[in-house]
Recover the amino acids of this structure.
């Protein structure tokens, strides 16, 4: 006698997609990205660049020009050097530059523009430090440091 075996065909089941590892990744990745996004900040400094349209004859006025050289700073009035600040221990003397610019601002309080002229081999970080020094100064007021504006409209260019 022949036995008839009836094999039941198994229905092919669609496998479930295991999302556990992906969810674990998201649980770690999202807070990490949110935390690091807080620390990245972009600061934009608006600079005035010389234009070719200034063809009108101008009366000579006092201009603040800070020339950054390898040996130190030169402060010019637009035509001649009025002060030279040499490097101290192979570093730029930014506090002395700041003090001199505060004196100039005291003499010309309405003056808001200044030029920073840089030699070709000066590092970018030094340029930024000089621009920050020209822009403002920190003044101690009863134990609290206050930032005061000096020359906020800064132009940059090549040193003569």
């Amino acid at each position: 006698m022949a036995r008839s075996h009836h094999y039941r065909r198994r229905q092919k089941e669609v496998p479930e997609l295991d999302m556990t590892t992906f969810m674990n990744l998201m649980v770690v990745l999202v807070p990490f990205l949110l935390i690091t996004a807080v620390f990245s900040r972009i600061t934009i400094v608006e600079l005035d660049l010389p234009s070719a349209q200034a063809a009108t004859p101008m009366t000579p006025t006092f201009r603040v020009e800070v020339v950054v050289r390898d040996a130190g700073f030169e402060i010019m009035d637009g035509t001649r050097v009025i002060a030279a600040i040499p490097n101290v221990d192979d570093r730029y003397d930014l506090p002395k530059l700041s003090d001199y610019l505060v004196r100039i601002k005291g003499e010309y309080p309405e003056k808001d523009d200044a030029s920073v002229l840089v030699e070709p081999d000066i590092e970018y970080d030094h340029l930024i430090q000089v621009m920050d020094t020209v822009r403002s100064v920190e003044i101690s007021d009863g134990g609290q440091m206050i930032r005061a504006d000096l020359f906020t409209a800064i132009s940059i260019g090549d040193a003569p």
